[in-house]
Amino acid sequence: LGLTNCPEKTVNANGDEGRWTSFVGNAMPWSPKYSATVNYEHNWFLSNGLRLSPYISVNWTDEMFFDKGNFSEGALHSGQAAVATGSFALRLINEEDRWAFEAYVRNVTNETVRNWADRGPGYMRGSFYKPRHYGLKFNMAF
After folding, report:
1. Which of 59, 68, 113, 120 is the S-S candidate for 37 at Cβ 3.0 to 4.6 Å?
2. DSSP code per residue over 45-66
3. What count of other Cβ atoms lies within 10 Å of the Cβ of residue 66?
4. Residue 18 clears pLDDT 90, i.e. is over it
């Protein structure tokens, strides 16, 4: 429409006006430029009526930010750098009796992945996905 963007004016915690800030060219929060996930599952039907089903998942996510400021320096990075993770599972399924066992490993690369962050004056708050972990599951439908 021929209108120019109005810059945002930051306000500090005391309500005092800060400096004018432009976010033109910054990435949108929670929006990596690229991400990809590849999943593969194969089924082997065994002669005793069981099904063996290995599953693998690989995910790559480009750098993303959790706020509009896109601050990317050192420990106060307001997002998550590009990261790749993967998971693996092996399932033994009995469809007739409606049960399944599963052995799994999540985050096989053991990457530290930040899933939320909030930058304060001189500190950072945030949380992370679980490190590499593994386990067994038993499922039964009744």
Report:
1. 59
2. E-TTSEEEEEEEEEEEE--EES
3. 20
4. no
